[in-house]
Each structure stands twice: as structure tokens, then as C-alpha cells.
UniProtKB/TrEMBL annotation:
Organism: Streptomyces typhae
Listed Basic and acidic residues bias regions: 443-452
GO MF: methyltransferase activity
Family (UniProt): Belongs to the CFA/CMAS family.
Disordered as annotated region, ranges: 123-145, 425-452
Protein name stated in the entry: Methyltransferase domain-containing protein
S-adenosyl-L-methionine in keyword set: yes
Keywords associated with the record: Lipid metabolism, Methyltransferase, S-adenosyl-L-methionine, Transferase
Swiss-Prot/TrEMBL GO biological process terms: lipid biosynthetic process; methylation
Gene3D superfamilies (UniProt xref): Vaccinia Virus protein VP39
Domain Polyketide synthase-like methyltransferase: start-end pairs: 157-398
Source species, domain of life: Bacteria
């Protein structure tokens, strides 16, 4: 009788019609596959039951989160190989449905059922959240619940992963050798410069997280800031941090939905890594609400992850793993869709900067932080939750590196009726000059020659 690893390898190759590119180690200690290749460890036959009851990404995710499967070797390499094997084998690759027409493949499928016995559906890991019906998604209540699922897992855990900056969005790297802290500071400064922040201005930071942008804007640029978040834990952390910085007279942190902010107008709005939570059905409302909160001439900096457009956008579905374990109800849109909706709301879009490679570098640093402090990360959350974060951050790093997704900073203006944007003639003036948010209008004698 064949051992479990050989049977698993043979069954996988028969079912998919492709050679398995990694090694397999099964629960009985047996191994099969290319010598020296990274190894997928199947610790329990329960992993097969998870895949049979929920074929595809969600079944794999459940097996990973539960610890039924693991990786021995470089996680990035294994994810790259499996992505090509399962999802990206090209138009000529046969589908599972095609293969099941082959009597030998049907026989292999029956063998897989026998190997997975007893055929009882395993319970989903406790870290999995139940998805809302489309009718109830992105209400104030459902958004608060979704945000709590992702962000209220412990500030100490996020400190371990994110480092002292506590910035949970793409950093801005001068070079891959820079420190994460420096790169996050540079990102906050880039946002401040694009918004043209100057002393006396009012900034609304939508989805303010742990207060990093608010603190930077108030301390370095002398503005007054209102930060809003739906996370109680984030708000508590941000308020403590602001008090320690001596900035309580300049910064107010609210646990509030952006749709309930009513104290405009603001001179500028930053939305950094928040718009992914808004949802396609609500995005125009989001854009309209933010424009209404800006004074004429006010700027919005919208920093948002984007997916690539599909030939049939009506067939788009959210990522099952991300939706169940990471960002419930999160939705990515193509960059063109986002820009179009901002324009429909009346914004003038003036600058778009893609910083896709920067997010890959950022995610790899976060993964390294988690892996370097793995026992502590598990203690602060749970083994399953720590495994969720490691998998999603590593997989996301690869997605950015391979251009499956991107991230963009979109600068938009509520342009006054007379049409004066207030921007310098050279569109990226903010990338040069001393700190402090100097912002020169056309005709200013300081305009040239340092513009970018």
C-alpha cells in the first residue's frame, strides 16, 4: 500500500493535470515530491476533509488557520508555486471539471474521499467571521462590526507587527535598506505635503487608526486634527499617545462613522487605507460626503489599494480568505473606477501616484517582525489569528510584487467655482523644498526651478 504523501501527490496531479511543484510531507511522516523543494506539511487528514467540503481558497485557508497544514521552508516560495499551480496555469490548463470527465481522474477523486475519511465536515476555525448578506453590508452597524473584527485584536499585537510607528498602511521607501520607521515617517510627510498642510489649518483624518497621521500633522505642520475611527481600541491608544506628545489641544479622536461627521468645513482630508472598507455600493456616497466636508479649494488625499480590472466586472467576487478572516466586507476596485467616482462627486483629480512596490517592501517587513516574535504574537492573540496575519501579509506582498494588485495615492480638490486649484504649476512641487508644507500658487516667485 502506498504511503500517504505519495498518494496525496499522485491524487493532486491527477485531479489538476499538472505536476506538483513542491514536496509533500503527510501526517504519517512520509514524504514525496522534488528533493530539496520547499515542503507542504499536511499534519492531519482533516485538511483533506476541509478541502473536500469547501474546495478552493476557503478550504485551504481553514486548513492553514487550524494548523492542519503548514510550510517547511520559505513561505513566499511555496505561495508563489501554489498560486501558479492552482490559480494561474493559463488558458490552456484543464479545469478540474474537465479532468473529472476522465475515468482515471474520477477514480482518483474517489480515492481522495477514502483517504479523507471519516467524511464529516470539520468546524470552521473560531477566527473565521460570518459574511454579511449583500443587503446588510456597509451599514453603520455592519461596518463597525467588520472594523472591530480586524482592528480590535490587541494593540500590543499590532505594535509587535507594525513597529513603533503604528502605521498600518504602505510606507514610502527611499531604498529597500531604509528602516520601516523612516519609511513610514516619509509616507506621512508625503501625505502632509500633498495636502499642503500649514499652521492653522483643519485636517480631518478619516480612518485615523492609532493616530500616527494626526500626530505627525499636528506636531510637524501645526494643524488642528479631527481623527475618526470605528475601533475603540485604536481610539484609546491614539488618545494616550496624543496626551504623551502634549498635543491634546490640537487633536481630537472620535469613535465615529465618517458619515456622521458634521462639523466641516475642513481645509484638508486624509483617507489612508480606509476606502477599501467603504464598498462599491457606497463609494459615491463616501466621495460626496468627503467633498461636502471640504471648504472650496480643500484637498483630499485618498490612499487606497486597487485591484486590476476584469473583462467582466459583473463576475468579480471578493477574496474568500480575506473576507472570512482578515477584512470582512472589504472590497477593492480598479483605479479607474475610483477616479471616476471621485470625479462624479465633483472632485477635480489632480495627481495619481502608484506606490505598488512600496507596499510589497512594507508587508515583508511586517511579516519579518511577526516571524521574529512568533511566540509573543501567538500569546497576544491566538495561534490561529497569528497564522492568519502571517499568511495574508505574505500573500499580499507577493500580490503587489506580481502586479495582481496595486496601491495609489489620489490627490483630489474641491475646486472653487472660479477654477483656482491652489496647486503649483509643477505638479509635484511637494517632493522638494524644506518641510512645513510650503505651497506655492502660480505666479509665486519661489515656484521655480526646484519643482519636480
Amino acid at each position: 500500500m502506498q504511503d500517504a504523501a505519495v498518494r496525496l501527490k499522485n491524487l493532486a496531479e491527477q485531479l489538476t493535470g499538472a505536476e506538483l511543484p513542491i514536496r509533500v510531507r503527510a501526517w504519517d511522516g512520509s514524504e514525496a515530491g522534488p528533493p530539496g523543494a520547499p515542503t507542504l506539511v499536511v499534519r492531519h487528514r482533516r485538511a483533506l476533509r476541509r478541502l473536500l467540503w469547501k474546495p478552493g481558497e476557503l478550504g485551504l485557508a481553514r486548513a492553514w488557520v487550524a494548523g492542519d497544514i503548514d510550510v517547511d521552508g520559505d513561505l513566499y516560495v511555496v505561495l508563489d508555486l501554489l498560486a501558479e499551480y492552482i490559480w494561474e496555469r493559463g488558458e490552456d490548463a484543464r479545469t478540474l471539471a474537465d479532468n473529472l470527465r476522465d475515468p482515471e481522474v474520477r477514480s482518483a477523486a474517489r480515492s481522495l474521499f477514502r483517504l479523507a475519511a471519516p467524511f464529516v465536515p470539520p468546524p470552521a476555525p473560531r477566527e473565521e467571521t460570518r459574511r454579511q448578506s449583500r443587503l446588510h453590508r456597509h451599514t453603520r452597524g455592519s461596518d463597525k462590526k467588520a472594523v472591530s473584527h480586524h482592528y480590535d485584536v490587541g494593540n500590543d499585537f499590532y505594535e509587535l507587527v507594525l513597529g513603533p510607528s503604528m502605521v498600518y498602511s504602505c510606507a514610502y521607501w527611499e531604498s529597500p535598506d531604509a528602516t520601516l520607521e523612516d519609511a513610514q515617517r516619509d509616507k506621512l510627510e508625503l501625505v502632509a505635503r500633498k495636502l499642503g498642510l500649514r499652521p492653522g489649518m483643519r485636517l480631518l483624518d478619516v480612518g485615523c487608526g492609532w493616530g500616527s497621521m494626526a500626530v505627525h500633522a499636528a506636531r510637524e505642520h501645526g494643524v488642528s486634527v479631527v481623527g475618526v475611527t470605528l475601533s475603540q481600541e485604536q481610539a484609546a491608544y491614539a488618545r494616550k499617545r496624543i496626551a504623551q506628545e502634549g498635543l491634546t489641544d490640537r487633536i481630537e479622536i472620535r469613535v465615529q462613522d465618517y458619515r456622521d461627521v458634521r462639523d466641516g468645513p475642513y481645509d484638508a482630508i486624509s483617507s489612508i487605507g480606509m476606502a477599501e472598507h467603504v464598498g462599491a455600493d457606497r463609494y459615491l456616497e463616501y466621495a460626496n460626503d468627503l467633498r461636502a466636508l471640504l471648504k472650496p479649494g480643500g484637498r483630499l488625499l485618498n490612499h487606497q489599494i486597487a485591484r486590476r480590472p476584469q473583462a467582466d466586472e459583473s463576475a468579480y467576487t471578493v477574496d474568500e480568505f480575506i473576507d472570512a478572516y482578515v477584512f470582512p466586507d472589504g472590497e477593492l476596485a480598479p483605479l479607474g473606477t475610483t477616479v471616476g467616482l471621485l470625479e462624479r462627486a465633483g472632485f477635480e483629480v489632480r495627481d495619481v501616484e502608484s506606490i505598488r512596490e512600496h507596499y510589497a517592501l512594507t508587508l515583508r517587513r511586517w511579516v519579518a517582525n511577526l516571524e521574529a516574535h512568533w511566540p509573543e504574537g501567538v500569546r497576544l492573540t491566538s495561534p490561529g489569528r497569528a497564522r492568519v496575519w502571517r499568511l495574508y501579509m505574505a500573500a499580499s506582498a507577493l500580490a503587489f510584487e506580481h502586479n495582481r494588485i496595486g496601491v495609489n495615492q489620489v490627490l483630489a480638490i474641491r475646486t472653487p467655482e472660479e477654477g483656482t486649484s491652489g496647486l503649483p504649476l509643477r505638479a509635484r512641487k511637494w517632493l522638494s523644498g524644506p518641510p512645513g508644507g510650503e505651497d506655492f500658487s502660480p505666479g509665486d516667485e519661489k515656484l521655480s526651478p526646484s519643482g519636480v
